[in-house]
Amino acid sequence: DFAMEPGRDEKDRRLDEHRVPLDDLNMTTDQGARVDDTDNALRAGTRGPTLMEDFHFREKITRFDHERIPERVVHARGAGAYGIFELYEPLGDLTTAAFLNDTSARTPTFVRFSTVAGSRGSADTVRDVRGFATKFYTTQGNFDIVGNNFPVFFIQDGIKFPDFVHAVKPEPHNEIPQAQSAHDTFWDFVHLQPESLHMVMWLMSDRAIPRSYRMMQGFGVHTFRLVNASGQGTFVKWHWRPVLGTYSLVWDEVLRIQGNDPDYNRRDLWEAIERGAYPEYELCVQLVPESREHDFDFDLLDATKIIPEEEVPLRPIGKMTLNRNPQNFFAETEQVAFHTANVVPGIDFTNDPLLQARNFSYLDTQLLRLAGPNFPQIPINRPIAEVRNDQRDGFHQHLIHGSRTSYAPNSISGGCPAAVDGYRHYQEKVDGSKIRKRSPSFEDHYSQATLFWNSMADWERRHIVAAYLFELGHVERKHIKEAVVDHLGKIHPDLGAQVAQGLGLPAPAGTQVHTKSSPALSMTGQPHSAATR
Ligand code: HEM
């Protein structure tokens, strides 16, 4: 039960020797003094003022006053669970990562599912992206897949993330609407940033209202890299596939569930695990040899694109079983800190500009959210691999280093020399001018949105059109609605025409309403299991 155990160090061992076990369950202060009365503050006379010297009163109130920490700036609402990851076959030809080579290993994991836009107290079953973040506590350190339930993202470059999130979040003057994309700022962003159109198709589909976290896919989204012992890299996309299958709610259910039980998805996950119906997910990979980097009609570094499964099939490599609920929501689910840059030897990044930004952002935000640099020592974040380095001090330092020195190199105590088999970054050749310019290979914003539409059944298309009508129906400014409809017409004439008609707008140029589905456009391949059952 490593993740629940507070850090055991020399001080703990010594304290243990002197520990006075409580022979009853009576209350103590944080300093260990027994409390005689926690219902009545110390006062001067039975009807007199409260006395400052009542340290128990002050401690109790102060601790309460300080209970809140900042919620996550995105993905504030979440639910977590512990699990185990088991590998099907060794992947030594692809990666040196130990947990991807040892089929006998049962690698502990912690997963946090989340919504993105709403605050901590918002409802579960909103139309939104879902986070699917997994921490693998491997023998070589923590490895995180910080993914979503959609395989693509809204933007191509992380420098736009603050703009995007500000547009999605409630409007600044009145904090309305909570966790809905049904407002002007969201659609203003969408029409001005057509790179978001593909992801918005997913958002308007039933994928955005999952029935259960147990029945939801997860995607690492970016192209990452596996590196083997000879230093050879292979591009990889991570996919989680729920063994139960992928299921969604329908909008009418959502509207009722939100009122009946805003904790619907959280409760479902908790109760399933309590009754032993452990959620299972297969980890699958799409592998692309480096020699094929430029073989696609999109850029592998563009996070608004999928690799169609017809072009690169999924290979299942292992299974995760979620088998234990957290004991304390705050200590575990709230304090867990995922980070795309938490990698182990054999797993590396690519130059996807969205990923590069994330590699900066998560640590930065956690330094604020979890009050300083020592949050990796919080039990839920602590690796099972031993941590040893010359970092020191900072708020909430729990480790007591016995050493007299904390620098390297070091001829006094030996210090912590760097390991010869330590993490070695992939030696990618980089050569270019310093410019703020995106590659022309990032320019196509419509083809895969069209691919998504074409892969849908008729009833799924009806749901998508209904979602656009509901969300855009809340937009006040006509020019925004018209501009979005214009983009939709470029994704598919039917989509543009049907949404325009529903909104009482003129059909975008060159489109007309078809009652039957139109034939597929000139796209090859299908999005990954896009159909929702
Ligand atoms: C949180 C996924 C893009 C910044 C999260 C979480 C997930 C996630 C799953 C919640 C983690 C948890 O449960 O604790 C993704 C995916 C992205 C993406 C899949 C695109 C592929 C970005 C970008 C940025 C960003 C581009 C910034 C440049 C953040 C921040 C948090 C967060 C600041 C809060 C983290 C915390 O407080 O611990 N993201 N995100 N994300 N994300 Fe992202």
UniProtKB/TrEMBL annotation:
One of its GO terms (molecular function) is catalase activity. Keywords: Heme, Hydrogen peroxide, Iron, Metal-binding, Oxidoreductase, Peroxidase. It catalyses: 2 H2O2 = O2 + 2 H2O. Residues 28-416 form the Catalase core domain. Heme binds at R72, R112, F161, R358, Y362, R369. One of its GO terms (biological process) is hydrogen peroxide catabolic process. The active site is at H75, N148. It comes from the Bacteria. Decomposes hydrogen peroxide into water and oxygen; serves to protect cells from the toxic effects of hydrogen peroxide. Belongs to the catalase family. HPII subfamily. Its cofactor is heme. There is a cross-link at H339-Y362 (3'-histidyl-3-tyrosine (His-Tyr)). The chain holds residues 15 to 547 of 684 of the full protein. This is Catalase. Its EC number is 1.11.1.6. GO terms for cellular component: cytosol. It comes from Nonomuraea diastatica. Residues 6-19 have a biased composition (Basic and acidic residues).
